[in-house]
Amino acid sequence: MVDYKEVKFFTFSFFMFIMNFVYILGTAGSGKSTLASSLLDTLRAAELNVISVNLDPGVRWLPYYPEVDIREYIDYDKIVEEYQLGPNGALIVCVDTAVNYIEKMREEIEKFEPDYVIVDTPGQLELFAYRDSGRFITSALSKNNFSIIFLADAIFLNRPSDFVSIMLLAYSVQARFKAPQINCISKIDLLSEDVMEKALQWVTEPLSLKESFFSEIADIKGEFSERIFDILLEIGGPGEFLLVSSYTGQGMTDLFAQLQRIHTGGIDI
Ligand SMILES: Nc1nc2c(ncn2[C@@H]2O[C@H](COP(=O)(O)OP(=O)(O)O)[C@@H](O)[C@H]2O)c(=O)[nH]1
Ligand SMILES: [Mg+2]
């Protein structure tokens, strides 16, 4: 016989605890922590209950106050000393060690009952995206309810081949995590009007990149980029890119709308 009291309780608790995790990943110095801060402001302005989690054990200063912080569990300086490691080696040990604290961090997060959890990841993309511990932490902490914001610096908009290399990186992150992903180019406030105009064309109409290849010095690398671009198009497209600036707030409304679409509207990945 069905125990309706139990069913009711289950449904109630199910609705109580839908926490949407958003991991911000990207190239070193692309502005992940700054975007985390700006996104927190945007979501809070929309009256959502949002908290932040810092997963960068080596960071000295953050532009936001994280409610949950890996540095409370792991002492980067102590690991450098104890294992006699350089910065990269120590960060690898930190991220691998973080696996042991995921349950505790999850408990801390649950106490806030947030709608959204914005997770800032270590400076170096490869540390998190290309190690098994990073992937494990991502799914275990969020219990598989997560999306990814992939962030790359506006400097990659200088040449079409640079932009293709970022598309490839975005695709490789997508292939690693197999989660809904929003690709963003950061710091667009630094772009000149000319570059901004070209960038807008590239992101809204990826095929326009093909024409730009001709204007780049024809060499073997240019040809290589063009072929990679063709393959990306063939296998379903390089994906959309949003142009954002955490300083001016450009693109933040679009980013928010995409997040809401993924987490509350439901989209196929
Ligand atoms: N001009 C500009 N600079 C930014 C923007 N976002 C971040 N930065 C700067 O880029 C640097 C790296 O930012 P940070 O958030 O620490 O990057 P992370 O290593 O990816 O977390 C800092 O000096 C930031 O002030 C932006 O939207 N515009
Ligand atoms: Mg950072």
Automatic annotation (TrEMBL):
Residues 18-161 form the AAA+ ATPase domain. Keywords: GTP-binding, Hydrolase, Membrane, Nucleotide-binding, Transmembrane, Transmembrane helix. The chain crosses the membrane at residues 7-26. InterPro entries: AAA+_ATPase, Gpn, P-loop_NTPase. Belongs to the GPN-loop GTPase family. Pfam families: ATP_bind_1. SUPFAM superfamilies: P-loop containing nucleoside triphosphate hydrolases. It comes from Thermoproteota archaeon. It comes from the Archaea. Coiled coil: none annotated. GO terms for molecular function: GTP binding; GTPase activity. This is GTPase.
